[in-house]
Give the backbone structure.
Amino acid sequence: MNAADASGVHGSMETIATAADVSEPLQFEEFFDAERRRLLRALVLLTGNPEEAEEVMQDAFIAVWERWDRVGRMDDPTGYLFRTAMNRHRSGVRRAARAARRVTGQAHGGDLFAEADERDAVARALATLSTRQRQAIVLTELLGYGSADAGRAMGVRDVTVRRLAQDARGHLREALEENDDER
């Protein structure tokens, strides 16, 4: 068989083989180098505190590294990393809120956590969103993904991402206004 004969069906088989090669798992170190800065920036925006963001980022990368044999083969390991980081952050916020409630009951003045409340206002507002809304707003607003890319990461159509992000922005406005009214 000559090269001209192989360009038909065999050419598409070659494309399929190439596509399979693309789905080979990434090396964790390459993934870490590629995503570290973006995740840290997103977490600094979310937490308002670079040290806290760094801690959440480290926890998320450790969790991903522990499961890298599975995560590295995913279609979107970056999405998994960001979801892991968001979950770690939410858990930390819940732990801090529980601790604050315990301490506030014993504190004098009751306004000892006002500064922490301000810093966590966005985190609390994000926590009021549905998971899909939170994913859409973080991917499009914090990470700068276009709706098509965010849709692929979420496994939905781009029009769905735009709608989820629009709804999320509305809910965030309401939650942050309520937070301002409570102060």
Remarks:
- The first helix runs from residue 3 to 6.
- The chain is about 80% helix and 0% strand.
- The chain has two domains: 26-110, 128-183.
- Confidence is low (pLDDT under 50) at residues 1-21.
